[in-house]
Specification:
The protein is an alpha/beta fold. The chain has nine helices and six strands, in the order E-H-H-H-H-H-E-H-E-H-E-H-E-E-H.
């Protein structure tokens, strides 16, 4: 029986992943990279700092640092997390809370950002706890964040289901032994293989969770 639901943040609760991908693509094109579908796969749901060197292997670290600074000056300014909320999230959280499920977030984003997202959308009352990039040594696809969230929730993998949107997230959920619901992304190419369930609208997750024995 499912007792707890763990959400990814970016691309599941808020639509920041699409925004970040578009900014990365534009920046890379301006620096001479012919952006391809493969580049979407290589950068989606991964910190740009960990992928930019593979995109531009010929550039020095100083050049990469300048590019990262430019990216951050665009990507992290004037973020309206309320406007970026995925449609249907509040209703899903209300449904899950009303049915007695425990709810957590496990994200590669830092604690400060998660706090800002929860505050902007008044979601604090729905979320029991969260695990951020500040809380684990190894990021997704390593399952550490989900294992830690389950430990803090007091549930095992058979009592927990994850909602994700990226391949690294799906792999992390499965690595922790959890079933995974994937929110489909139709606007740009992204790997979303081998999830246990797929949804297009957030409220569809409630029916899936209710029907799991």
């Amino acid at each position: 029986m499912i007792k707890a639901v763990i959400f990814d943040l970016d691309g599941v609760l808020i639509d920041t992943e699409y925004r970040a991908i578009m900014i990365k693509a534009d920046l890379c094109r301006r620096y001479g990279l012919q952006w391809t579908a493969e580049d979407y796969y290589r950068t989606a749901a991964r910190p740009f700092a960990t992928t930019i060197g593979r995109l531009f292997p010929e550039k020095s670290q100083d050049e990469l640092n300048r590019m990262l600074a430019e990216y951050r000056s665009i990507a992290y300014v004037d973020m309206d997390y309320h406007r970026l909320a995925i449609p249907g999230v509040k209703e899903l959280l209300e449904t899950l809370r009303g049915k007695g499920y425990r709810i957590a977030i496990a994200s590669m984003s830092p604690k400060r950002k998660i706090d800002q997202v929860l505050s902007a959308n008044h979601w604090e009352k729905f979320i029991d706890l969260f695990v951020s990039s500040d809380d684990v040594e190894r990021l997704k696809p390593d399952p550490d964040c989900y294992l830690k969230a389950m430990s803090k929730l007091g549930v095992n993998s058979e009592e927990c289901i994850v909602i994700e949107d990226s391949q690294v997230g799906i792999d992390a959920a499965h690595g922790a032994g959890c079933k995974c619901i994937c929110r489909r992304e139709h606007r740009y190419p992204i790997e979303q293989r081998n999830a246990d369930f797929y949804i297009d609208e957030m409220q569809e997750a409630a029916e899936i969770i209710n029907n799991i024995e």
